[in-house]
Every structure is written in structure tokens, then in C-alpha cells.
# Entry
Amino acid sequence: MFGTEPWGYGGYGQFHMVIWIILAIVVAGVVWRLRSGSS
# Structure
């Protein structure tokens, strides 16, 4: 997503992408629980 950070390149490029994927899944799960819980 954010490929402009210098620490996003090098040996941590793949790890950086995995972190964002995990964060996206966690955020989506939290939002889904809040939506289903409130309604």
C-alpha cells in the first residue's frame, strides 16, 4: 500500500506487506463485529 517508506524496501519488503494484510483483516473483522452487533 504505502511503498514510499524507505523501510518498506529491502529484506523487510515482504514482511511489510504481510503486516498490512494482517492489519486489514483485523480491522475488517472489528468493523464487521461492530456492525453486526449494533444492528
Remarks:
- The CA atoms of residues 16 and 34 lie 27 Å apart.
- The mean pLDDT is 78.
